[in-house]
Amino acid sequence: HKSSPRRLSPGVGVWVVERAGEMSNATCPIASAVARDPRRAGARRRVSSRAAVRLGGRHLAVASSSRWDVDAGGGVIFTAQELAAATGGELIREGTPGSVSTDTRAVRSGQWFLALTGERFDGDAFVDDALAAGCAGVVSTRARPANWTAGYVRVENATAALQALASDVRRRFEGPVVGITGSVGKTTARDMCALALGVEQTHATEGNFNNHVGLPLTILRAPPSARAWVLEMGMSAPGEIAALAAIARPNVRVVTNVAPAHLEGVGDLDGVARAKAEMFASASEGDVCVVNAEDARVMGMTVPNGSRRVSFGTRGSGADVEVDAARSEDERADDRTAVFPPSALRIRNGKETVSVCLSEPGAHLAACAACAAAVAVSTGVPLSDVGARLAAFASPKGRMRVSRDAATGITVLDDAYNASPKSVSNAIETLRDARDRGHRTVVVLGDMLELGSASHDLHVDALRRCLDAGFDVVGVAGDAFAAAATCVAAERADARDVVVAEDAESLWELIRDSASVKGSVVLVKGSRGMGMECIVQRLTSGGGGES
């Protein structure tokens, strides 16, 4: 902990105290920045709260508090000078220190409003609203309005300014930063990684804040007490992962898999692989690159010299961390009456073996658990701790979450947040397990969007999987699934029973009765733009639901 005597933190494991004037620029990036730019003088006070130590060699563990302050809402505080220096902007008018908000509907008194602009929105149109809300100032690309009374920083590009502020905070943090991308399951892997690292000490992406705006906003809410960050990174076009990795500079980099998703932006599976491989391309010496041993495209990605490759996979894959089912066939037979029995797993890393019991269903959970274990072990967390922590995993809303209505006996498998061919396949297999246990099953699917020229064939394949599984009711919404149903009906008679609708609302009207039969197990899934959650809401709004 480099500190003045007034701000020594009692929880810090290492103190390094230097007399005034003796802190070298080489060991303190902020001090170096101040020396280069006098406007950053205000940053000097935050150097004193730094407390980090990197353990040599294999591990990235830290005992630290990081060098920034946060406000009551958890936002990182900047002075006006720091805002201007970090963004390369011009300080037009001084303002009080505060955190940064990009939404005038949520801006609090004392915050700085950063006016983002885009094709469908113009933040500068709301600067007066921010002033009325008591903002400390505004960061904008436009000239200061007449009679402006708050702080004002003018920048060239507001989005770039937001990203620069996040980069500035990232430079002050020396703990493990885990960057996760992949076509399927990256959100589940993210949540499991946060658990495995110790959720109380880990700052992680929430919701869908995984793009060029969401990731910087996530960093700008990092608590100084966090020991690790887990940041999800999404993409729909080449170059986007590279840009996010440049901001976050992860020292543990993860690619979960490569599967058909966002094909409109990248063309084909090889294009997906190239885009995901950007995660590893900028890895530095000592970084850890975590790969899926059972995905040939991930295994084929280049890991730079000096970086360490750590793999995960199922038992027998030869991965550094392996996972397999822990229960015997006899034990599984005892669970035939359960809709979705607990998933019992064993995770090994060559030295240790731990058992993990997950209460959530999902064919993808084993791989995500192995991925999380590989990440945590690479940062020095004992595998025994990982096993105990993963047992607390609970699926977030819209991502394979199970809801049971005691009044109707209906079980809803809510996977309505998004859909891709691989995630749909995983969800179908999970529902098929319930059917194999004798439960009445209903599958309700919305179109999978952004699949380009491959869309028709992929929707036909998904529909065939549903029919092959023998579900009691199959309902689909959207133009792509409608075309697929017409195609499949020409080759097999059971396709004629598929319920087809234009959109989710129309589909609900058609399947309301058949999906609401007592004791049914209903899977609801579709791309974000299909709004399939409206069906979940209707199925679970009967009053006696429990999650």
Could you explain the architecture of this structure?
There is one protein chain. The chain is α/β, with parallel strands linked by helices. Helices cover 32% and strands 17% of the residues. It is built from 19 helices and 21 strands. It has a nine-stranded mixed β-sheet with strand order 7-8-6-9-10-11-12-13-14, with helices on both faces. Strand 18, helix 17 and strand 19 form a beta-alpha-beta unit. Helix 16 (455-469) crosses helix 17 and helix 18 packs parallel to helix 19. The protein is globular. It starts with 28 loop residues before the first helix and ends with a strand.
What's the tally of helices? Answer: 19
Number of strand elements: 21
Which residue ranges are poorly predicted, with pLDDT under 50 across at least 5 consecutive positions?
1-64, 543-547
Characterize the largest beta sheet: strand count, sense, and whether it forms a barrel.
9 strands, mixed
**Overall average residue pLDDT:** 87
Oligomerization: single chain
Q: Strand pairing plus helix content: what structural class?
A: alpha/beta
Strand content: 15-25%
Radius of gyration (Å)? 25 Å
Give the structure's gist in a few sentences.
This protein has helices at 29-36, 44-47, 80-87, 127-132, 158-171, 186-197, 214-219, 240-248, 263-266, 269-281, 296-299, 329-333, 365-378, 383-390, 421-436, 455-469, 479-489, 504-515, 533-539, and strands spanning 90-93, 100-101, 112-114, 137-140, 151-154, 177-181, 202-204, 228-232, 252-255, 288-292, 308-314, 321-325, 343-348, 353-358, 401-405, 411-415, 441-446, 473-477, 499-501, 521-525, 545-546. It has 547 residues and is of the alpha/beta class.
